[in-house]
Amino acid sequence: MPIKSEDFIYYVLICILLIVAVLLWPVVLRSSWDWFLVPLGMKRIGYLHALGIHLTLKFFTWGYGEDSPKKEKSTAAEIFQHQLGRLMALILVTGFLYVIHLYAF
């Protein structure tokens, strides 16, 4: 069954969102580390260290949780909406952590 052009666009957008999320997670982790652990005496970490920590944690927790859409009935649009929601949640969590950082130290 050939892929519809509308589905193809969603699949391209899903790939772009996944790449952005993979590149954004270490920034969030590094910022959180700087905001909360550096004042406690821990050394700062760089982007690659944060990426390594993120990938290690992702490897050990792979498959836990049921937050992904059902695989047998998911359309490209549903997968796109799910990934976009996860990216928005990441941005909101980062903002929330930044506000906590402003008032905690």
Number of strands: 0
* Structural class by secondary-structure content: mainly alpha
Distance between the termini: 57 Å
Overall tally of structural domains: 1
Helix content: over 70%
* Biggest sheet architecture: none
In the predicted model, the low-confidence regions spanning at least 5 consecutive residues are none
Give me the Rg, rounded: 17 Å
Shape: elongated
Number of helices: 3
Note the beta-strand portion.
Answer: under 5%
Average pLDDT reading: 81
The ordered string of helix (H) and strand (E) elements is HHH
Could you explain how this protein is built, in words?
- The protein has about 100 residues and is an all-alpha fold.
- It has one domain (about 5-60, about 75-105).
- About 70% of the residues lie in helices and about 0% in strands.
- The protein is built from three helices and no strands.
- It has helices at about 5-35, 45-60, 75-105.
- Helix 1 crosses helix 2 (about 45-60) and helix 1 (about 5-35) packs parallel to helix 3 (about 75-105).
- The termini are far apart.
- The mean pLDDT is about 80.
